[in-house]
Amino acid sequence: INPYAAELARVVIWIGEIQWLRDHGHPVPRQPILPPLDVIETRDAILDRSDPTHPIEPAWPAATFIVGNPPFLGAKLLRGYLGHDYVEALYHIYGDRLPGMSDLVAYWFEKARALIAAGQAQRAGLLATQGIRGGLGRRVLERICESGAIFMARSDDPWILDGAAVHVSFVAFDDGSEHERTLDGRPVTAINPDLTADINLTRAHRLRENLGIAFIGDQKSGSFDVSGATARDWLRRPNPDGRDNRDVLHPWVNGLDITRRPRDMWIVDFGTSMTREEAALYETPFEHVQRQVRPQREGSGIGATDWWLHWRARPDMRAALAGLDRYLATPILTKHRLFVWLPAGTLADHQLVAIARDDDYTFGVLQSRVHTTWARRTLTNLYNQRPTWLQDAHARLDAAVLDAYGWSADLADEELPARLLALNLEREPAS
Asked: What does DSSP say about strands 123-129 and 65-68: parallel, antiparallel, or unpaired?
């Protein structure tokens, strides 16, 4: 950053001079190389709580370049690590600029963007979790592209964090004055907010006719889940007034159950509005939740007042799935785009998208090349190696779907996103 760039340059010169003196047998000066660096500040970069009752957004000093590796912390972990009051202050101060479910790293991006937009900085280069290019996290990159431009990015690079292998994105942006753009090491004409080039699929909007079909699954927020063996034991236990524990015990599926072997997990689920008194009548499941979940929820501040209910029980999803014998689900966090049938009564976790359809037609369209090309963008192929029978089945499926669109069966994958985006933009948006 500009204020101490000159000092760093002087240090480099000093080091070179000292090495030359040593190499040639001359005495080395003893005075300190660095004077006090009072331009470096140790403080919270995104929230000023010097007055605890009135936290404000801190001012950043003017700079030529902003370079950094801000902390990553998913939105669901913010309250646990930073505290309820801190997170509420963040949401209040940045609420009109960042969605509340943004990763902590997004706040550094927004601060740097604002400094550049105000003419107090020229460029920024920051590291982020690769999730910043998708979902709500992408909003900060959209704001960057609205007030300036991304001129360099690496969309998905491996990284080691605390011994764990993760994936990160490198993003460099300015006010739009840089004309040379590179994405993943190759020249491009523009970089989109989802860190892709060429077709800007972030322009696609939700369609009114597709509302009420796909839902993020239930978010429990607490140890409501139990093993299948435990659940089957509880199903045999009576309750004082004759209620059946089947009312509140259901098979539970998350992303691992779909991408790996099913784990035979169940979940205690008191629905969306059951009172504590009603829930307590299911004696064994309720005592488990009171013992395991209540301390977790009261300690985190999430859903502390109705701790026996799942934090986000998705009433709209439950209503849409009611009456279906089965429904489709697809994992959110996976490099493969696959769809599976789940039987009625199975509760989908928030790592899944539940699709309220039970017909083979919808299943076929979602599995087709047309849809998987649209859904993946840059992900790997659905299968690394397909046996011949599976290739033949997919070829027939793809041909049928392409024919329904009125397109040639030999249309290349690269052409599909542009055609689908055009159809999307022709239709009525959800809002």
From this structure: parallel
Token representation of residue 402: 């392409």
**Nearest by Cα to 249 from 274, 222, 282, 295:** 282
Nearest to 143 by CA among 179, 113, 178: 113
Reported as a single tens digit per residue, the pLDDT across 267-302 is 999 999 999 999 999 999 999 999 999 999 998 878
**In what side-by-side order are the strands of the sheet with 123-129?**
65-68, 123-129, 164-174, 149-161, 181-183, 186-188
Between CA 28 and CA 20 the distance in angstroms is: 10
Place of tokens 């000023």: 48
In DSSP notation, 54-83 reads S-BPPPPPP-SEEEE-PPP--GGGHHHHH-
What is the DSSP annotation of 111-143?
A: HHHHHHHTTS-SEEEEEEEGGGGSGGGGHHHHH
Q: Would you state the torsion angle of the CA atoms of residues 344, 347, 351, 356, taken in this order, to the nearest 10 degrees?
A: 40
Q: Which amino acid is at 194?
A: D
Q: Looking at the predicted structure, is the pLDDT value of residue 2 above 60? A: no
CB 57 within 8 A of CB 48: yes
Q: What is the mean pLDDT of residues 194-206?
A: 80
Q: Calculate the alpha carbon distances from 411 to 366, 418, 421, 425 in Å.
A: 18, 12, 15, 21
Most distant CA pair in the chain: distance in Å?
95
pLDDT: which is higher, 164 or 79: 79
Among 240, 333, 220, 221, CA closest to 281: 240
Could you report the per-residue pLDDT of 340-398, keeping only the tens digit for each?
A: 999 999 999 999 999 999 999 999 999 888 887 777 673 333 344 566 777 788 788 88
SS3 262: coil
pTM, full prediction: 0.62
Burial class of residue 222 (count of CB atoms within 10 Å of its CB; 0-12, 13-18, 19+): buried
State the virtual CA torsion across 149, 150, 151, 155 in degrees, nearest 10.
Answer: -160
